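User: Look at the shape:
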Amino acid sequence: MAERWGKPIRDLGFELVAPLGLRSVYNRFSQMPKTRFSSEERTRLIRAARAASRRAYAPYSGFRVGAALLTAKGELFLGCNVENAAYPVTNCAERTAIFSAVAQSGPGLEILAIAVINQKLAPCAPCGACRQVIYEFGPRARVLFRTSEGWTESSIADLLPYGFRLP
């Protein structure tokens, strides 16, 4: 069991590691197919995102969001939203997870999947900026999020049909 900010993370099915004092998570997704997930794998990714949402800094909106990002190397990185009194510099959970992954693993990051959840269980798809950043590092990535009908899984290309990457 690992602890951070005094709250234990349990039952996620992940081995926790912390290189250079930063948190990254190795998981049991190494055999995961690149396009579809089993319900068990989806559940683990969503649980990890839910755990990350508990760490969100959202004193202004109270809308605490978490994200769990799965890489092609089988690593899992967590992110949460971090608000600021100057709203435009607030960072979304998805980008926090991606930027953390790049900081720890380098620019060769390849995203296989990312799950997003908020503590209110309200519909919560990635915003446009997050969609573009997900596309930058995972043009074939799968995105798990809640809609008004429940959980959905979509490709980032469907969510951002004209995403771009510079050569």
About this structure: Confidence is low (pLDDT under 50) at residues 1-34. Residues 22 and 104 are 8 Å apart (CA to CA). The domain at 2-159 is CATH 3.40.140.10 (Cytidine Deaminase; domain 2).
